[in-house]
Amino acid sequence: MNDTRTLLDTKEYPDSEVQKNRVITLKEWQDNWVNHKIGFHQAEGHQLLKKHMDTFLKGESGLRVFFPLCGKAVEMKWFADLGHSVVGVEISELGIREFFMEQNLSYSEEPITEIPGAKVFKSSSGTISLYCCSIFDLPRANIGKFDRIWDRGAFVAVNPSDRGRYTGIMLSLLRKGFLYLMSVFSYDPTKYGGTPFYVPESEIQTLFGTKCNILCLEKVDAIEKQNNAGTDYFFEKLYLLT
Q1: Could you give the C-alpha distances from 91 to 127, 135, 220, 235, in angstroms and in order?
Q2: What's the pLDDT score for residue 2?
Q3: Residue-wise pLDDT tens digits, 111-128
Q4: Are residues 150 and 66 in contact, defined by beta-carbon separation less than 8 angstroms?
């Protein structure tokens, strides 16, 4: 127990620039889906989200919830089943189709006129709409504002050099009274190159701090989930932005 506490108290790696030139292309992400290299997918859903769901939803109904880089996250069905409206964006059409298939949801698809080559997939119930395009093209589709954002596997997957652009898009989607829940990882980036990429709290403060209040809800040891990283410690941190 003491060893665990000591690890959890480990200070963050001081140099946040180590991974700044790391780039993963959209084609590489699409290939990961084709080749089933989707270790980031959590078939049982995200346990920290489940634990903090009441804090995130605050008992409100009819919310619009945004999932950036959504993959086939089962949590999208969770929110839809609770009566909320879900919108996601994902570069992999395969990932989107697998979501609807695995959740036994019928759906339709149509082109997004504002983004050549892009599509939107909509559940027959109308509660889930998933846009197949780059997150950086999404603003052209005018998808409106959101009450909640669940950012898991998104901010940590965006190339570090693109985080400023990504943050600008996220902030532009938020309604007054929003809650933005974000999962990030802390580890020694000199021993593991990502993904998920390393995100120090100082960078969250720099990017979001002028517009949001930032609270770390929980920090947990996640080394077992990432045992191939070759790093001595690996923490997952859950932040609530308001």
Answers
A1: 20, 8, 29, 27
A2: 41
A3: 999 999 999 999 999 999
A4: yes
Using CB atoms within 10 A of its CB, is residue 125 exposed (0-12), middle (13-18) or buried (19+)?
A: exposed
Query: How far is residue 97's CA from residue 107's CA, in Å, rounded to a whole number?
Result: 9
Residues 74-104 as b or e (16 or more Cβ within 10 Å = b): bbbbbbbeeebbbbbbbbbbbbbbbbbeebe
The owner of tokens 């120090």 is: 200
- The one-letter amino acid at 98: E
* pLDDT(28) > 80: no
Length of the chain in residues, anyone? 242
Reported as a single tens digit per residue, the pLDDT across 66-110 is: 999 999 999 999 999 999 999 999 999 999 999 999 999 999 999
Burial class (CB in 10 A: 0-12, 13-18, 19+), 63: buried
pTM value?
A: 0.90
**Three-state DSSP state, 113:** coil
Highest mean pLDDT among 18-22, 61-65, 221-225: 61-65
Burial 206-240 (b: 16+ CB within 10 A, else e): ebbeeebeeeeeeeeebeeebeebebebbbbbbbb
d(CA 125, CA 121): 12
Is the CB of residue 172 less than 8 Å from the CB of residue 203? no
∠ CA(216), CA(218), CA(224), 5° rounding?
Answer: 130
Asked if 102 contacts 42 with a C-beta cutoff of 8 angstroms, the reply is no
